[in-house]
Automatic annotation (TrEMBL):
A single BP term in Gene Ontology: regulation of protein targeting to membrane
Matches recorded under InterPro entries: AsmA-related
An example Gene Ontology CC term for this record: plasma membrane
Origin species: Flavobacterium kingsejongi
Domain of life of the source: Bacteria
Residues covered by region (Disordered): 702-724
Name of the protein in question: Uncharacterized protein
Residue ranges with Basic and acidic residues bias: 708-717
Length: 994
């Protein structure tokens, strides 16, 4: 009884203590060690122990979810390695979620981090071994002996890290070894790894899978878009530095393999001794047959016989400069495929391929396809091939001969219903050539003979988006290609070809005849020449690109690379009609020809040089939505530039003739590739209203048909519109036009004899000292126009109007009607100059309150017309002529700002009077002027104030405010307001008025 009571009490106490411990742990995790508090602490701890910068969105301690161990949960972590050899810092790893449970006792007592379970979701890893052999993942800081002896008791150092179980979900990795020049990439990686650690051995149990695996070594690509799955046990001998794996299961693109072998590292040379064997798990043709995609052909109800041998071995040294000797064997023996419900069968299938990859002696690497035999219903193919010097300069000798009846194959085999196949194919080709000869364009060494004929061929595989149809295509190689020609190399005849690939390239061709020749050059190399005839070609490609050629004849010559020059293509082209569309843009020519030399530049980009000549060219682009027509012209092309010589272009009501060079016209559009040009522009007539309308951002821009453009005629300028509208200049062109325009229609004005420099630059329209004639007046202007949004624009201007009728000033500049209405009360010619800026509304009219300008007007012998204001002032000052008077001299300086115009004191001589006039003219047509009488029949100076508007004004006598401004007396001049005098001088100086 006592024992029971004691046990009962112990259980109660233990349970209470455990409950209390759990309660304390819960309180600590939820209120003390919160993510907000521990995140900076842990990241600082990691940064102290790791030679990397670690950051994390949140770090949370766990206990109940990782019971009986403590754990940690990290979200959105990033590990950035320090810069290497001047490079920028790089991201070693990042992840969305990371969970880990660890042994607290070992961490606290021995400073050993033993992670019992590590789970990482969506990680991205970039592993790099630099040229000096240092790996970017070796980021644990080493602790020196001195550091141990004087170690701060408050610091915490981790001596070792060991992971017992690892799980990676949906990871991606990029591996770059710059020592051995090995590179690998993969994604959709899922890994489960269990590890057991002793003093002598480290054991791993691993399952892994991944997609899109790529691997290359020394520039050789060994895998691309590979799907992999692996299950293996790995044993690592710590003392021998040896890794062994036995009967590991490997799946490559749905083929199961068994692999075994070992790696052993030499600790002195760092070389790795490799001995690996990879062999097909079930060596039968049926196993290989199962890898054929189901959507191509039915795989059920079939008897598959035959043996398959697929084996690869890699044995030797793996190091910075060496790779193991690799031997690959692939054989199919006595292959037979018979369907139970279909009459089609493969009666005989054999293949024998052997390859040796010797990286130490690349010239001894070779591949031999000693036998390829396929015989059955609708198919009879035989072939063989050898490739010598496989890794250095492959020399290929290939033969293939046989016949295919695709119609029979489709009917007698269970090929997928959505795949169409019919027609006959005969192939008999022998080719002997070196890979370097092709790359270096030494076509004289290329030996090809035989022929292939495809009759009524149709292949349509919707899943692979491949469609090809041809009535007849014939390929003939060797001297039989053209009787009597020693230079003959080959001949291709195509009739009614339709081709569609990946829904990006759609080609239709009524006829093609191509004759190939190998032409000897002076330096004993050979050029590949071709005579090509095309009829009715239609093409549709990516990015809404389309092209049409009605009839064309082409000669082309591909010259090989020599010691002096880079490879080049010389072509001549004659075409009946051709057109190219891209989205809503198009360009077309009629009766054209070109002569071009296309040569590779230093960046290995093919660049053209030559001429293009045509009878008519038609073009359209939405940015300038008027169809363009160009008559007979010859255009020179030099790399990315084109040169025009008297190219006459018509669009809408307008016509221009251009001479000069346009740069980057043929370059791929990018922010640093601006179209720029300096051109001479002459024109008989330009309809500016029409151009502004089609360049308006809000204008509806329909796309005309090619035929509509070709048949369109120039419109009658008499029917041109008088409506202006704001327009926008494209920002990716810089053009300079030295212009001579006979007539330009702008608004209701006809401007004549325009001459000067016109610039289109980064979205701005600039006129530089432009001269023109309008309303019998000479106008010289410099301005800068830029659109501000879709409905407004800003203009900076400098205008000089010479010999203009005073009444016409408001017609040329309608804003002056509001700011300077008195101009309509004068008859006579004046000189007006203005300089400033203004905003324009949607109709290109000046927004008068926005005008900020200075102006000056000079006139002589100006007649003042009849007006109520003039009559009243004449009556007040007792003019002899009360209705009409001549102003002998009128010089005025004005400042326009804040919705009004200030007229600075100006001298006016009229009748028997010498007057000084100044004041304010408001936008609402109200005014407040003062007239100082400086000379009159009355022997004293007086002043007149005129205030009000045209309908309601008041005239009153007052003192003469401006009596000191126009006198020769230095004593009286000292009484003037110097600021006003300085304003007048400054305006005259800026406007270059004498």
């Amino acid at each position: 009884m006592k024992i029971k009571k004691i046990l009962k009490r112990l259980l109660i106490v233990s349970g209470s203590l455990l409950l209390l411990l759990l309660l304390l742990t819960s309180v600590a995790l939820n209120f003390v060690f919160t993510p907000k508090r521990i995140t900076p602490t842990v990241t600082n701890l990691l940064n102290e122990n790791l030679d990397a910068k670690v950051s994390c969105e949140s770090i949370e301690l766990t206990f109940f979810s990782s019971f009986p161990h403590f754990g940690v949960k990290l979200k959105n972590g990033v590990v950035i390695t320090p810069a290497f050899s001047g490079n920028k810092s790089d991201t070693l790893a990042q992840f969305e979620v990371c969970r880990a449970s660890f042994n607290v006792e070992k961490l606290w007592r021995k400073h050993d981090l033993q992670i019992n379970n590590l789970s990482i979701i969506n990680p991205k890893i970039k592993a790099v071994i630099h040229k000096d052999g240092k790996a970017n993942w070796n980021i644990v800081k080493e602790t020196s002996a001195d550091t141990i002896t004087v170690q701060d008791s408050t610091s915490f150092k981790i001596n070792s890290i060991f992971i017992k179980k690892l799980h990676i979900e949906n990871g991606s990795i990029a591996y770059h070894d710059f020592v051995t020049k090995a590179h690998a990439k993969g994604d959709s990686l899922n890994v489960t790894l269990k590890a057991a650690n002793t003093d002598k051995k480290l054991t791993f149990t691993t399952t892994a899978s991944g997609k899109h695996i790529r691997f290359s070594k020394d520039g050789y690509r060994f895998a691309k878009n590979l799907k992999v799955a692996l299950a293996t046990n790995i044993l690592y001998d710590k003392k021998a530095h040896k890794v062994d794996f036995d009967k590991s299961e490997l799946k490559l693109n749905d083929i199961d393999f068994i692999t075994e072998g070992h790696f052993q590292r030499d600790t002195i040379t760092n070389e790795v001794q490799t001995d690996i064997v990879l062999e097909m798990k079930v060596p039968s043709l049926k196993t290989l047959w199962e890898t054929v995609p189901q959507y191509i052909i039915k795989k059920e109800d079939i008897d598959v016989q035959g043996n398959v041998l697929l084996k690869a071995t890699a044995k030797g040294i793996y190091s910075k400069n060496r790779l193991p000797l690799t031997d690959i064997t692939f054989k199919i023996d006595h292959g037979i495929l018979k369907y139970k419900k279909f009459p089609g069968e493969i009666r005989h299938l054999e293949a024998d391929l052997h390859a040796v990859l010797n990286f130490d002696q690349p010239e001894q690497s070779n591949l031999t396809l000693s036998k390829l035999f396929l015989e059955g219903t609708g198919v009879d193919l035989k072939g063989n091939a050898t490739v010598k010097n496989l890794l250095k300069d492959p020399e290929i000798d290939a033969n293939i001969k046989g016949d295919l009846d695709l119609t029979t194959l489709k009917k007698k085999f269970p090929i997928a219903e959505d795949i169409q196949a019919k027609g006959l194919a005969h192939i008999d080709i022998n080719a002997l050539f070196k890979s370097n000869d092709i790359q270096n364009n030494n076509y004289n060494n290329l030996k090809v003979k035989g022929n292939s004929v495809f009759t009524n061929l149709l292949v349509n595989a919707p899943k692979d988006t491949i469609y090809i149809q041809t009535e007849k295509t014939e390929l003939v190689f060797g001297r039989v290609a053209e009787a009597g020609s020693r230079k003959a190399f080959g001949k291709i005849n195509v009739t009614n070809l339709k081709l569609n690939y990946k829904k990006q390239h759609d080609l239709m061709l009524a006829g093609l005849v191509m004759k190939l020749k190998a032409k000897k050059l002076k330096d004993s190399t050979a050029a590949l020449a071709a005579d090509i005839s095309i009829s009715q070609l239609k093409y549709a490609g990516a990015d809404k690109l389309r092209g049409v050629i009605r009839r064309a004849n082409i000669t082309a010559e591909l010259s090989p690379k020599s010691t002096k020059e880079r490879p080049a293509i010389t072509t001549t082209f004659t075409v009946d009609s051709a057109g190219v569309w891209q989205d809503k843009k198009f360009i077309g020519i009629k009766k054209g020809n070109y002569k071009l030399l296309v040569r590779k530049n230093k960046e290995n980009i093919w660049m053209p040089r030559g001429t293009v000549e045509f009878n008519n060219l038609y073009a359209y682009t939405p940015e300038f939505a008027l169809p363009l027509r160009m008559g007979h012209s010859k255009i020179a092309i030099n790399n990315r530039a084109i040169t025009l010589q008297d190219a006459h272009i018509t669009f809408g009501n307008s016509d221009v003739t251009l001479t000069g060079q346009i740069n980057n016209m043929l370059a791929k559009r990018s922010p640093d590739k601006m179209i720029n040009a300096t051109l001479t522009l002459t024109s008989n007539f330009i309809d500016a209203n029409e151009i502004m309308k089609i360049m308006n951002p809000e204008a509806a821009k329909g796309q005309p048909e090619f035929k509509q453009v070709a048949e369109s005629k120039r419109q009658d300028p008499k029917n041109s519109s008088n409506k202006k509208t704001v327009f926008k200049i494209p920002e990716n062109i810089n053009l300079v036009f030295n212009s001579a325009i006979k007539k330009l229609h702008y608004g209701t004005l006809d401007l004549n004899d325009l001459k000067g420099e016109l610039k289109i630059e980064e979205g701005h329209l600039k006129l530089n000292h432009f001269e023109l004639t309008t309303l019998a007046a000479k106008l010289t202007t410099s301005l800068n126009y830029v659109a501000v949004g879709d409905r407004k624009a800003k203009v900076d201007f400098d205008l000089n109007l010479d010999d203009i009728e005073m009444a016409n000033i408001a017609k040329v500049m309608p804003a002056m009607d509001s700011l300077f209405p008195m101009t309509k009360s004068f008859v006579g010619k004046a000189h007006l100059r203005m300089q400033g800026s203004a905003m324009l509304n949607r109709k290109m009219d000046v927004i008068v309150p926005s005008v900020s300008s200075i102006a000056a007007l000079q006139a002589t012998d100006v007649m003042v017309l009849d007006s109520e204001t003039f009559k009243e002032m004449a009556k007040t000052l007792m003019f002899r002529e009360k209705e009409k008077n001549t102003i002998q001299s009128l010089n005025m300086e004005m400042i326009i700002e804040k919705s009004h115009m200030e007229v600075l004191p100006a001298l006016v001589e009229i009748d028997r009077y010498r007057l000084a006039v100044g004041g304010i003219q408001n936008l609402d047509l109200s005014y407040d002027y003062h007239v100082s009488v400086l000379k009159s029949p009355i022997p004293f100076k007086t002043g007149v104030n005129i205030k009000g508007n045209l309908d309601d004004y008041k005239i009153s006598l007052t003192k003469a405010k401006y009596k000191y401004y126009f006198t020769d007396s230095e004593r009286l001049k000292e009484k003037t307001d110097e600021s006003i005098i300085n304003k007048k001088k400054s305006i005259l100086a800026k406007l270059n008025f004498k």
